[in-house]
Amino acid sequence: YSIHKFKFFNFIMRFFILLSYDGSPYFGWQKQPNKISVQQVIEDALYTLLREKIEITGAGRTDTGVHAQKYYAHFDSNNNIIIKDPDFIIYKLNAILPKSVQIINIFDVPSESHARFDATSRTYKYYINTVKDPFASQYSYFYPYPLDIESMNQACQTLIGERDFTSLAKLHADTKTNICKVTTAKWEVGAFYSKENSENDKTHLVFTISANRFLRNMVRATVGTLLEIGRGKFPIEWLETVLNEKNRSSAGNSVPSNALFLNDIAYPYSHLLVRKKIDKL
């Protein structure tokens, strides 16, 4: 049916979008002049569908090539079709968007809700394969060295808590503070794709980290630093020294972006972000 038969409310509603995207074709989430971004393609799709210029606000930046399995953004509109038939909007948006972006759900939320500022934690995952694997190459980092997982996990304990992460942040970033509170940091056996791993098969690993906020490049710099420890180039205690020096050049190199996924975002009103998923695709 035609979208044009729906009317506009005489008041503005706020909506959250739950989406996922493959970041490979994009220069990150945020709009940039003359560069394709996830934010831009979604705004273009909303305009094509609703004939309404809409600006969306994301839960945060993801850098060039970084993926998101669970990402939230919000926008305002007075088009009542979004309330009357959200499944239709989801279906049509997915038909318009490129295959690298999927709209999972749309929720109406209180007008003061904010996708970025209301988030209480974010979780990232980074995938490593230490043996050549053609099925992992696009979304995992090939690091052909034996790694001591136990040493890396011991070093992870240094990250837990509220700390200054200047040494693991991009230089000259426009942040007011480099203090972050990390609640989870761990390495486990696991592949990006469905693969039967045993505890003895440590050729595919995943690093998981959760915090209230992240600095630009923080996860990739953290992984690169932990890999130096896992490879035996530095002792476990080296990470403490790195953090205390508050100097990016003290830490390890940043790992590539293709293996990094924003895995989850938590909100204090998660009960509002529940709606039955559709299966029309």
Oligomeric state of the chains? single chain
Low-confidence stretches: 277-281
Rg computed from alpha carbons, rounded to a whole number of angstroms: 20 Å
**What is the β-strand count?**
10
Count of individual helical segments: 6
- The SS-based structural class is alpha+beta
Shape: globular
Roughly how much helix do the residues carry, as a percent range?
Answer: 10-25%
* Overall pLDDT score: 90
Q: Give a quick account of the main beta sheet: strands, pairing sense, barrel closure.
A: 10 strands, mixed
| SSE pattern, N- to C-terminal | EHEEHHEEEHEEEHHE
Strand content: 25-35%
Q: Termini distance?
A: 17 Å
Describe the overall structure:
The chain is of the alpha+beta class and 281 residues long. The chain is built from 6 helices and 10 strands, in the order E-H-E-E-H-H-E-E-E-H-E-E-E-H-H-E. The chain has helices at 38-50, 81-84, 86-96, 149-156, 218-230, 238-245, and strands spanning 8-21, 57-58, 67-79, 101-109, 121-129, 141-142, 161-164, 179-189, 204-211, 260-266. Strands 1, 2, 3, 4, 5, 6, 7, 8, 9 and 10 form a 10-stranded mixed β-sheet that branches. Strand 2 and strand 3 (67-79) form a beta hairpin. Helix 1 packs across helix 3 and helix 4 (149-156) crosses helix 5. The longest helix has 13 residues, at 38-50. It is globular, with a radius of gyration of 20 Å. Residues 277-281 have low confidence and may be disordered.
